[in-house]
Amino acid sequence: MVIKEPKSKKPVKQGMLDNVMRQFDHAADLLELNPNIRKILEVTNNELLVHFPVRMDDGTVKIFTGYRVQHNNALGPYKGGLRYHPTVDIDAAKALAMWMTWKTSLAGLPFGGAKGGIQLDPSRYSQEELQRITRRFTFALGDNIGPELDIPAPDVNTTAQTMAWILDTYMSTKSPAERSTNLHVVTGKPIGAGGSAGRDRATGYGVYLTIKFWAETRGHTLHGKTFAVQGFGNVGYWASHFLEEEGGVLIGVQDASGTLYRAEGIDVGELAEYARANRGRIHGFSKASPIDSGDFFGLDCDILIPAALGNQITAKNAPDIKASLIAEGANGPTDVSAEAILLEKQVDIIPDILCNSGGVIGSYFEWLQNKNSEIWPMEEVMDRLEKKMRESFNRVTAEAEERQVDWRSAAFIIAIERLADAYTQRGIFP
Ligand SMILES: NC(=O)C1=CN([C@@H]2O[C@H](COP(=O)(O)OP(=O)(O)OC[C@H]3O[C@@H](n4cnc5c(N)ncnc54)[C@H](O)[C@@H]3O)[C@@H](O)[C@H]2O)C=CC1
Ligand SMILES: O=C(O)CCC(=O)C(=O)O
């Protein structure tokens, strides 16, 4: 199924914002979405940009720029990660916040969508500096975040530790009575600081589950299936770990430091151990061969898992892709023109808002446990996660079948319809 150009004539900007808007427009056209609801959903509710000073280890003061975009909260508090990366800007935050709105809606969660972060390269700062940067950013965000208002979580280059610093800083601004009841201001925390069992692996496990469901749908087994993963951080590692457990063979890996290939398979645990000792980088791992980064997406494998940044699969490299499945661990890894090429080639694509939704579902479980003073065991978290992922996957494939559209369009339609119902039932658009 080829994605048609949207009817609306907006200026075409390169980048993730253009991509998510085109995806939205396409689904809204298919749905014949009420034009008033369309107007609401195509804009963000709030966009916060903060500049804040931080003292560096050498005593100098540096000014940083942070962002938090709150796209929509019709279904519940704003929810979404914080990214620390040089490419973070207002448009990136807007695009990622919109994807969060569709993702939480599709998953049937009582959340809206937000995203943010800081424009920086974390590899240039010490841990102490990153802690001070995070604390000053949290202070600058002030009461624009909150457990019932906007709940951040980890994303690229932010971790459970980052969330713990945010929690601690946020708490320090509250009265003693509020301090014990605000643990759910962030999710993805370390377990000892109120985190949930399983949130660390929830996104990668969800990616693996959708691949497993895909294999069932197509009548395949995962045993012996070859896969390549771009990004060997939280999402890429855990997705690879679970796929390997099921008999999948990792033949290619790319991260910001390099690209590796081994036709006979790369041991996921060994590579992870190497990366852990090498500041998270895979470069220099001796049990696989370094290859040219431009050859990564054309690797001969069954499954490709982009689990790094947006707009990685483009019209330039899409024709080279040999995999029969793309499982989008990352947000927005495939641009609209690449998607048209891939669908024409009959490559299956599990869209990001479905494929990587295990993370925010895991975050919802953490938020619920904090709110209700509960602690769930790992098994319960993983069982509930699997149930929710299966429901979402089945709904998307059934909608796609019924409407004869691709999986991304079906996922967007389900997500937008839920939001449209919320606005209609509130009586705003009788
Ligand atoms: N952490 C989470 O729970 C969730 C993350 N995601 C998405 O998954 C993707 C990855 O996130 P995380 O694993 O959390 O981040 P991470 O910071 O743990 O790992 C990012 C990985 O991407 C690699 N990378 C960065 N730039 C690259 C480039 N130009 N080429 C190749 N590799 C590059 C890094 O080297 C690293 O291995 C992002 O798109 C994020 O938005 C989506 C849902 C939830
Ligand atoms: O866990 C969350 O709240 C959001 C994670 C995230 O940023 C994402 O799903 O893209």
What order do the helices and strands come in, and which of them pair?
Layout lengths: L15 H16 L3 H7 L4 E10 L5 E12 L5 E7 L5 H17 L6 E6 L8 H15 L8 E5 L5 H13 L3 H4 L19 H20 L7 E5 L3 H12 L3 E7 L2 E4 L6 H9 L12 E2 L12 E4 L18 E3 L8 H9 L3 E3 L1 H4 L2 H14 L6 H26 L3 H19 L5
Parallel strand pairs: 3-4, 3-5, 6-7, 6-10, 10-11, 11-12
Antiparallel strand pairs: 1-2, 2-4, 7-8, 8-9
Helix pairs in contact: 1-3, 1-14, 3-14, 4-5, 7-8, 7-12, 7-13, 12-13, 13-14
Bound molecules: 1,4-dihydronicotinamide adenine dinucleotide and 2-oxoglutaric acid (AKG).
GO molecular function: glutamate dehydrogenase (NAD+) activity; nucleotide binding
Organism: Robiginitalea biformata (strain ATCC BAA-864 / DSM 15991 / KCTC 12146 / HTCC2501)
Keywords: NAD, Nucleotide-binding, Oxidoreductase
Characterize this entry briefly.
The record marks 155 as: Important for catalysis. It is built from 14 helices and twelve strands. The chain has helices at residues 16-31, 35-41, 90-106, 127-141, 160-172, 176-179, 199-218, 234-245, 268-276, 336-344, 352-355, 358-371, 378-403, 407-425, and strands spanning 46-55, 61-72, 78-84, 113-118, 150-154, 226-230, 249-255, 258-261, 289-290, 303-306, 325-327, 348-350.
Largest sheet: 7 strands, mixed
Helix % is 40-55%
Small-molecule binders here are: 1,4-dihydronicotinamide adenine dinucleotide, 2-oxoglutaric acid
Q: Please, what is the CATH homologous superfamily of the domain at 201-355?
A: NAD(P)-binding Rossmann-like Domain
Structural class: alpha/beta
From the coordinates shown, what is the CATH architecture of the domain at 201-355? Answer: 3-Layer(aba) Sandwich
Strand content: 15-25%
CATH-defined topology of the domain at 201-355 = Rossmann fold
Question: How big is the Rg?
Answer: 21 Å
Q: What is the strand arrangement across the widest sheet? A: 9-8-7-6-10-11-12
Binding site for NAD(+): 203, 234
Keywords: NAD, Nucleotide-binding, Oxidoreductase
Active site: 115
Domain Glutamate/phenylalanine/leucine/valine/L-tryptophan dehydrogenase C-terminal: 196-427
